[in-house]
Amino acid sequence: xxxxxxxxxxxxxxxxxxxxxxxxxxxxxxxxxxxxxxxxxxxxxxxxxxxxxxxxxxxxxxxxxxxxxxxxxxxxxxxxxxxxxxxxxxxxxxxxxxxxxxxxxxxxxxxxxxxxxxxx
Length: 120
Fold this sequence. Notes:
By secondary structure, the protein is mainly alpha-helical. Helix content is 87%, strand content 0%. The relative contact order is 0.10.
């Protein structure tokens, strides 16, 4: 089976368009990107080991991906508003909590990794 370059390019265009949309419309996503950029700079400034960098990249990606999933759920829930159900608000709150838990976990992992370098 051949991979169609046109389809691959089209897929990347859709993904880029979605990324730009979330970047423009979701304040939390922009804040998380700034935090990820700061962590990336610190990773190289402190000269972390490759395994430590990999862990930090994974947790940063986890937070960003969950924020994207949260944005999808919010849009789906907003489509249901005309037929509002009490669970719509719960759904949005639970998804926000999911992102929050991942962000708190990422901060904890970041502190565990950076702390020894900070106290040196």
